[in-house]
Specification:
Largest sheet: none
Structural class: mainly alpha
């Protein structure tokens, strides 16, 4: 009996270690899978840019109607990364200014990226917020430029910028579900640096 017990104890220990090792391997697999997925999403976020075709409305989507607000992500029929109802609203509001459409579409694109991420963690959130910040500055510098690069903005200028930003945000974040999703998204934010090259489009190519 004593001999059997001596053999039984090592087997139990070995079995426990084997289970522990197996669990550890599974955890590491998930870790590296999530890391790869995160890196993939971050790269995609930073590589997603507004195009000139978006600005001129070469492939405008149909009006999604009530379908637009049934989910947080909404409808993106033309697959350009901008929610269709927001895209159409920008074109309707600014039919004669390609420059204004361009910067607002870039901002809408950045906001939509926040609503469509598969994995949400600090790295992904920071990447999306960096793009939002970049688009925000693009709106300000393009539509309400400073008198000199070093000069501060007057309150009236800030109000003008806010009007443009609010127009897009009120269209983009227009349901309680979307407001909650954005709040939840921002909870995972970490520290970040602003990105260079604020605008996706070379505005010298636009007539107005």
């Amino acid at each position: 009996m004593a001999m059997k017990k001596r053999y039984k104890i090592p087997l139990i220990v070995f079995g426990t270690l084997a289970v522990f090792y197996f669990v550890l391997v599974i955890i590491r697999m998930f870790h590296f899978y999530n890391l790869d997925k995160t890196n993939e999403q971050v790269a995609k976020i930073h590589n997603t840019k507004l195009t000139m075709d978006d600005v001129i409305g070469k492939n405008l989507p149909p009006d999604p109607g009530a379908e637009a607000d049934k989910t947080v992500q909404g409808i993106d029929f033309n697959k350009n990364g901008i929610r269709d109802d927001v895209e159409l609203a920008i074109f309707k509001e600014y039919p004669d200014s390609a420059k204004t459409r361009a910067v607002l579409l870039q901002y809408a694109l950045a906001l939509q990226m926040e609503a469509t991420q598969e994995v949400i963690n600090t790295d992904v959130v920071v990447a999306a917020i960096q793009e939002e910040d970049r688009a925000d500055i693009c709106v300000a510098d393009t539509l309400v430029p400073r008198k000199t690069p070093e000069s501060s903005r007057e309150y009236s200028d800030i109000e003008k910028i806010d009007t443009y930003i609010d127009f897009v945000e009120n269209k983009q974040i227009n349901t309680e579900q979307r407001k909650k999703a954005r709040t939840d998204f921002y909870e995972k934010i970490g520290s970040y640096n602003s990105l260079p090259n604020k605008c996706d489009i070379d505005y010298s190519l636009l007539p107005n």
